[in-house]
Write a structure and sequence with these properties.
about 35% strand, 2 domains, four-stranded mixed sheet, three-stranded mixed sheet, single chain, globular
Length: about 130
């Protein structure tokens, strides 16, 4: 039975990577087990591990749920120099989403529930 998960993203410069991802998540890493690895617990039992190494270009995207996709896009464009990216939606999909890249080529993204009641229910179910 799986009860936790860790997803690893690699960057070629650890110092720059920690700074960039700390700004993306608006907080410092939660755990640094040894040189070349830091981790953020994104949700209980779900970790993003930043490792020094060669990025896996073309994989992903790894998307994070946010309350306001447009506001997050604007924030990271200003604070992290991320290029403008389109926000997409489809009638049969309950979220809108957008994809961008970090400076190392890792594909990331955000998504936002269209129905705010559903979003509130999901947050309550996940975060309590």
């Amino acid at each position: 039975m799986v009860f936790e998960m860790t997803v690893q993203v690699r960057v070629s410069n650890m110092k720059e990577g920690v700074a960039w991802y700390s700004e993306l998540f608006e907080r410092k890493p939660d755990f640094a087990p040894h040189d070349g690895i830091v981790e953020w617990e994104m949700l209980p039992g779900s970790w993003l591990q930043l490792a020094e190494g060669t990025a896996t270009v073309g994989s992903g995207p790894l998307r994070f749920g946010v309350e306001d996709l447009e506001a997050e896009r604007n924030r990271i464009m200003q604070r992290l120099n991320v290029d403008y990216f389109e926000i997409h939606s489809r009638e049969e999909v309950p979220v809108s989403w957008g994809t961008f890249a970090d400076p190392w080529g890792n594909r990331l993204g955000f998504f936002e529930y269209i129905n705010k009641e559903e979003q509130a229910e999901r947050k309550e179910a996940i975060l309590g």
